[in-house]
Description:
Layout: E1 9-12, E2 17-19, E3 26-30, E4 33-37, H1 40-49, E5 51-55, H2 56-61, H3 66-74, E6 78-81, H4 92-101, H5 106-115, E7 117-121, H6 125-137, E8 141-145, H7 170-181, E9 186-190, E10 208-211, E11 229-236, E12 239-242, H8 255-262, H9 265-268, H10 270-273, H11 285-304, E13 315-320, E14 326-330
Parallel strand pairs: 7-8, 7-10, 8-9, 10-11
Antiparallel strand pairs: 1-5, 1-6, 2-3, 3-4, 11-12, 12-13, 13-14
Helix pairs in contact: 4-5, 6-11
Zinc ion is lined by residues 253-254, 256-257, 335, 339.
Amino acid sequence: MHLFDDNPFLWFAPWARILPSSAPGLLVSAGAKIYTLHPAEYFRRLLANLDGTRRVTEVLALGFEVACLQTLKDERLLIVLRSAVSANDPYSRELSAFAALDRIYPDTALSRLQNARIAILGVGGIGCRVSETLVRAGVRHLFLNDIDRVERTNLNRQTLFTPDDEGELKVAVARSRLQAISPDVRIEICSEDILGSIDWPFSTSADMTLLTADATPHHPRIPYAHTGAVTIAGYRAEWAEVGPTLSPERGTVCYECFRHLFVSEEYLSDEAKKPSNNSVNCSGSVINALASAMIAQEIILFLGFPDRPSPLLGKRRIMLMTNFEAEEVLVTSMCQHTCPPAISV
Length: 345
Ligand SMILES: [Zn+2]
């Protein structure tokens, strides 16, 4: 399809800068590159009209030539959109970030995120930051699950809570903070222990489920009526652990088979799940921020840009926060023939 056939809105690469220059051409920097556009005055006027509010036909009606638009496209300086950019839209800046990933219809990625249903099981250090990041990025449908109430010791890392929230249910406080950030967001909450249970909101409709509860290292069962993707985030001392993302639709083992193939029975035992009474939960602010940023980006890329493999698809990445060294573990097995479509627990 020709770029301009369906008359899209045009946006001059929002991350580009026009450089001051006495040269006859217009100097534009984008990333590490500097482009020269001739003649300077013509392109200066053209770029001013490529503000994401005008369609191709409107730009051409102002007297500009399609060949110049083609030049900008060839230089990777042109973004095409299905809908106009709104200057007051809080998501317009997110859209500019998506445009760096996909120059052709990045607004499709935004609308995918806006329509996605995401379950976050565990609203602690990672769940707080990830839910906030996703809502600020445009996500509008969340399910939050956590059985705990806010404690003072949470406040070093659980960014949705304040001292005034002490004793309140985490999911209730989180919902109210997230809705204050974005009135558009719809959030279902549950403070019951649902890990291992069959029926919970989003259990059959989540496009992605993030496991980031205290029980996550023990890989709790989740209902296998679940058909969406599953991703995992946590930490261990100074190691941030993110992934793998599991999605049989995209060629990985399913979560249930992953449990059986990659997690030892000893780790899954009831005894291992009991909290130790003589250890302090080791959980710093920075390690939660690090794991949260990585897993939020994974979710955004997985849901918003399905045509490209997301960074953690079938991979677990373990990063040492003291020097940023990382290890990667590939999850290459495929589901067994016996992989059941639904597992009762
Ligand atoms: Zn399977």
